[in-house]
């Protein structure tokens, strides 16, 4: 079941089955900008799924228009994982699969999708 979007500013989120999807509008070259932005959204506006234990998958997709911004994707991933830790999972050591990629898109944004990893054979 997909729920409606929560948030009206630069950050919004929704639940899609067991996954949580977070969208951040706009891009900056400063990865550290995203940690407080997403953390404050999660703290003040997110009322969805509670953090869970077990392995998780996190997919981060940066979409840009024209040339990609000069940003290290590993720094972006770390800032975003720090921001959602405690809200979607308890500790970022639970992230068993992490995919971080950038693509040319129709608008500048970052999309995060996090969900519990299915056990083998499940």
Record the SSE blueprint:
Layout lengths: L10 E6 L2 E7 L8 H11 L11 E9 L8 H12 L10 E10 L4 E8 L6
In short:
The protein has 122 residues and is an alpha+beta fold. The chain has helices at 34-44, 73-84; strands at residues 11-16, 19-25, 56-64, 95-104, 109-116.
Keywords:
single chain, 122 residues, alpha+beta, 60s Ribosomal Protein L30, Chain: A, five-stranded mixed β-sheet, 2 helices, globular
Structural summary, described in words:
- Strand 3, helix 2 (73-84) and strand 4 form a beta-alpha-beta unit.
- The chain has 122 residues and is of the alpha+beta class.
- It has helices at residues 34-44, 73-84; strands spanning 11-16, 19-25, 56-64, 95-104, 109-116.
- The protein has two helices and five strands, in the order E-E-H-E-H-E-E.
- The radius of gyration is 14 Å and the shape is globular.
- The chain has a single domain, classed as Holliday junction resolvase RusA (60s Ribosomal Protein L30, Chain: A, 2-Layer Sandwich).
- Helix 1 packs parallel to helix 2.
């Amino acid at each position: 079941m997909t729920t409606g979007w929560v948030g009206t500013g630069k950050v919004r989120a929704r639940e899609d089955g067991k996954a949580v999807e977070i969208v951040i509008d706009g891009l900056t070259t400063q990865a550290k900008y995203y940690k407080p932005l997403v953390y404050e959204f999660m703290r003040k506006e997110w009322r969805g799924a509670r953090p869970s234990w077990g392995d998780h998958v996190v997919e981060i997709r940066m979409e840009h228009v024209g040339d990609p911004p000069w940003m290290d994707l590993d720094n972006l991933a770390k800032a975003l994982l720090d921001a959602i830790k405690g809200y979607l999972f308890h500790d970022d050591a639970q992230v068993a699969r992490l995919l971080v990629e950038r693509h040319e898109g129709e608008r500048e944004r970052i999309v995060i999708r996090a969900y519990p990893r299915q056990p083998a054979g499940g």
